[in-house]
Amino acid sequence: MKAPFIPLNAPYSDTQRAWLSGFFAGMHSHMLHSAGSINQADARTVHILYGSQTGNSESVANDAAARAKSHGLVPVVKSMDEVEIGQLAAMEYLLIITSTYGEGAMPDNAEMLWESASSEVAPHMDKVNYSVLALGDTSYDLFCQAGIDWDKRLDELGGKRLLERVDCDVDFEAPAEKWISEVIPLMAEGAATVSVIGGETQPTKSAYNRKNPFPAKMRVNRIVTALDSSKETRHYEISIAGSGLSYEAGDAMCVVPTNCPDLVARILEVLGCSGNEEEPVNSELMTLSEALRTHFEIKLPSKELIEEIARRSGDQELNALLNNGDKDKLTAYLWGRDTLDLLLQFPSVEFSAAEFLRLLKPLQHRAYSISSSGKKHPDSVHLTVASVRYDAHGRHHKGVCSTYLADLVGEETDVKIFFTPNNNFRVPNNDSLPMIMVGPGTGIAPFRAFLQEREFRKASGKNWLFFGDRNAATDFIYRDEIEAMQASGLLTKLDLAFSRDQAEKIYVQDRMLENGAELYAWLEQGGYFFVCGDAYRMAKDVDQALHDVIRIHGKKTVTTTVDYVNQLKKDKRYVRDVY
After folding, report:
1. Coil, helix or strand at residue 382
2. Integer angstrom CA distances of residue 28 from 22, 24, 32
3. Burial level of 33, CB count in 10 A (0-12/13-18/19+)?
4. Contact at 8 Å (CB) between 274 and 268?
5. Where do the domains of the chain lie?
6. By C-alpha distance, which of 543, 447, 460 is closest to 495?
7. Which end of the chain has fewer beta carbons closer than 10 Å to its terminal beta carbon, N or C?
8. Which residues, 6 or more positions from 125, have their beta carbon under 8 angstroms from its beta carbon?
């Protein structure tokens, strides 16, 4: 519409004044927007790529982006599976933040980009100014290996390292913050920067996090396996009412446990300590008993403790295993052994309280896949946890957190919890698309949440669950719920695999192959394929079965099958929550 002509010296009516006010306000806004656009185009872009299995690297990447904005940079945060190798080579300023998965492997979302970067035909990275932050766990042999590999490869390809790589242990917040505070000014050095007036409103972070967990209350604790099962799996419901916390289906809840008092007492006995000795822990004096119960990992022996016991004992077998570097033989030797087992095995080795504490790692939270939908249950979180109990080396052993929840938490006990989001592991936004879920044992947890989410959203998409365990009579957890979902039509298809109910063991991957034609058809309809559970056996077998299904029923070659699976990964339609 053409604007009316108004002479500058004319007396203005209310209507004219309103029009003029809007016109000049719009012009002012346009000029600000244009100026911002020009500045933003001239400002330096920093690409922040993350490789993450559980969400920690993504969280740090977002923190780095916020700091980059405050320095007038334009941050672009992306998962590694959203980037092609040619795009990587064109990134002038690059931050890589990656965790290490399992024994030195890349996280799932970093695998494809790493394959391209590590190939012989990878492009030169001579335009790239970079730095790497690696997240890891020193209890694993190949500590921070994924970050080490990226750092080395970018250097080999001609990249310029602006700041030395930082390797973070499980307590990653402080070193990550230091790295961000040092690397962002280097990225901004000599750059044109953008001034943001007002800026975007950032989501308010919860007051509760890893450093300040929420003191929740347990409301339900019940066994869902039969009493004569070879397993003990429990269903928990934990109240978060009044916390302001929220979560999405697919997220994990982290529990900060305390150690078993009986284990603490036995270790004190072997050390020859009363437990009343006062020792400094994080600049605070506390009794040795309290320190072992609440602050240190006393179940899994640290590398430092193992090496010191070997040195002091002079034991030939243990020293040979450590010196030969045979990881498999050392793992077999340590299998089932805990810190107390080693102390009992070498009674001649003595430690003072201070010496012993210096050889321990901090007690860490345990993350569990949430088995409820936050939309259906906004005030509570459901967990599905197998209690770890076993006999070995002449003693009864218990898992730290699983039996903390099972045995030590009462209705009035504060359970310290916080959430870690898993933005890749989500119910499809499009409610009409099919979901295929593979989750044997406690791997069913997130899929119980997914199905609740689909029900809440009244999603029309088909849902297919592959579930299994040892025996149907004793281990078919949530059976009533699953059968009710079938009866209502929410669960379109259910395939069960109980491995010990027949002479020949049957697993979920066998059911996938039996139903290969239909499974491939669901993928062709835009279906999402989710896996949750054991990473070392089940997930690998399921991955192979998926490749076989696509190759056979899609009539593809090995190469085109890999391409098909890689595209599923890029589209976030093949995602895993494995451990």
Report:
1. strand
2. 10, 6, 6
3. exposed
4. yes
5. 43-188, 214-257+365-420, 261-358, 435-578
6. 447
7. N
8. 88, 89, 154, 157, 158, 159
Q: In sequence order, which ranges of 208-281 are alpha helices (DSSP H)?
A: 261-271
Q: Number of C-alpha atoms within 13 angstroms, CB side, residue 305?
A: 28
Structure tokens at 151: 């750092």
Give the orientation angle of helix 558-570 with respect to helix 538-553, to 10 degrees: 120
For domain 43-188, give the fold: Rossmann fold (3.40.50)
Half-sphere exposure for 159 (CA within 13 Å, toward CB): 30
What integer pLDDT is reported at residue 277 of this predicted model?
96
Using one digit for the tens of pLDDT, what is the confidence trace for 386-415? 999 999 999 999 999 999 999 999 999 999
pLDDT of residue 347: 96
- DSSP category for residue 398: E
Nearest 5°: CA angle at 61, between 72 and 190? 30
Map 147-178 to HEC letters.
Answer: HHHHHHHHHHCCCEECCCCEEECCCCHHHHHH
Pairing state between β 74-79 and 129-135: unpaired
Give yes or no for a contact between 225 and 233, defined as CB atoms under 8 angstroms apart.
Answer: yes
- The pLDDT assigned to 19 comes to 39
Q: What share of the chain is helix, strand, coil (3-state, %, to 5)?
A: 40, 20, 40
Judged on CB neighbours under 10 Å (0-12, 13-18, 19+), 79 is buried
Q: Which CATH superfamily is domain 214-257+365-420 in?
A: Translation factors (2.40.30.10)
CA 245 to chain CA centroid, nearest Å? 18
Output the CATH code of domain 261-358.
Answer: 1.20.990.10
132 φ/ψ angles, rounded to the nearest 5 degrees:
-125, 135
CA distance 466 to 532: 11
CA distance 367 to 52: 15
CATH architecture observed for domain 435-578 = 3-Layer(aba) Sandwich (3.40)
What are 45-85's pLDDT values in tens digits?
999 999 998 788 999 999 999 999 999 999 999 999 999 99
Whether 1 has a pLDDT exceeding 70, the answer reads no
Distance CA 300, CA 136 (A): 17
The token duo for 209 is 């996090």
How many Å apart are CA 326 and CA 436, to the nearest integer? 40
What value does the mean pLDDT of the chain take?
91
What is the distance between the alpha carbons of residues 252 and 442, in angstroms, rounded to a whole number? 13
In sequence order, what are the beta bridge partners of 494?
Answer: 465
Domains 214-257+365-420 and 435-578 agree in fold: no
The C-alpha atoms of residue 312 and residue 324 are separated, in whole angstroms, by 18
pLDDT of 199-233, one tens digit each?
454 555 678 988 899 999 999 999 999 999 999 99
